[in-house]
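Quick look at the format.
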Amino acid sequence: MNLNTAIVLSLTTALITSSAFAHQWCWTSNQCNTYGWQLMTPDERKAHQAKLVSFQNYTACEKYIDMHHKNMDERAKINGVTLPPIADNPCEALKALGKLK
């Protein structure tokens, strides 16, 4: 095996491994599915995503999401912003993926 072949095989393996790891999660918060996304800083968005992935229990996730929605409603009121209706429940999505019990 020559050096070029070894490099290609290594990179392909790394890509497949990282892709498989990413697909274990399969749900990420974004502007289309996160209530109040436009009112959050990039750091808050990252923290929100990290918090969601930390849950193993549906009830704990629901409590957090209820609190998040209340906080976003308060921010919207302060900033004179009308948020669109809540379309997705991340806890339901995580439950459907088998991430929450």
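Next, a different chain entirely:
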Amino acid sequence: MLKSLKNKWFGHKPRSSGGDGIYASIDELLEQRQYISYLKSFHRRLTSSRQSGDVKSAFRGRGIELEELRAYNYGDDVRDIDWRVTARKLSPFTRLYNEEKDREIYVLLDLSPYMAFGTRKELKSVAAAKITALLAWLCLEHKDRFGLCIFDGANEQTFKPSNNRGGVVAMLKKVAEASQNILNNQKVESQSLSKPLKIMSHLIKGRASMFVVSDFSRFDLDCQKSLAQMSRKCDIYCIDVFDVLEDTAPAAGEYMVSSGSGKSLIFNSSAKSFRAEYQHYFTHKREQIKDLCHKFGARYFEVRTDKDLHKQLQIF
């Protein structure tokens, strides 16, 4: 009684189940499942997996969609004979169907210290973790196998593809842990994505799709070579996560920035030359990644941390 009166007079503030944009909690990652209906399926290309799923395969077999009707050949399954056409043509004809196969979807999630940055809504690391969760739930919805590699700037955690809810939830728990651990990482310096890309290259055996979710701040020449090599055997999607401050220079005034190691710098953003150079730097970086993806047949997408992620990912 007293509790209900208290809520009526003073209002009730629901308990937050998230990390307030600082880290991605497991509850937030599980909640991403409600947004998969907003996404357009990218499961339209042919795949060559041996397990059944929702995607049409390049192999022919006993599926549900008619692929071809042709004259009966020795060795064809008699169950596939179309008796109506056979009676009309006075010669046996066989139906061939598209066999449904699943596919493997991999995500390389960059949770290095450089991703622990954000000025609006949430850090880039949180947005990247939520995007990974969205892709995981979308794969589960389409009965695909979801594999994951988490990179914290120095070490990698890889998870074999899974197409069951328990396996996906276990991966998302590791993502939530990693998004919190980088906040305690005192080492700002981190390696490039070259090593995890090479690991993914060995992990992916057949034709698959791989998403690289990162800010690409440490995307060196070795990374470019690895990406070019992987694009020959799988479909690559690069999702560039960035903060609004990396897109637009801050308002005119003096600012102090710190590297986290005791060094600081004061700069003035009022000068037009500074604002133009600032804008050019980040725009040029994204254009380089975009051109690289276009060169090797990979797809490139930009995602801002201050906007709804599922709305930006409707491009799929």
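The mean pLDDT is 81.

See the schema section for token definitions.
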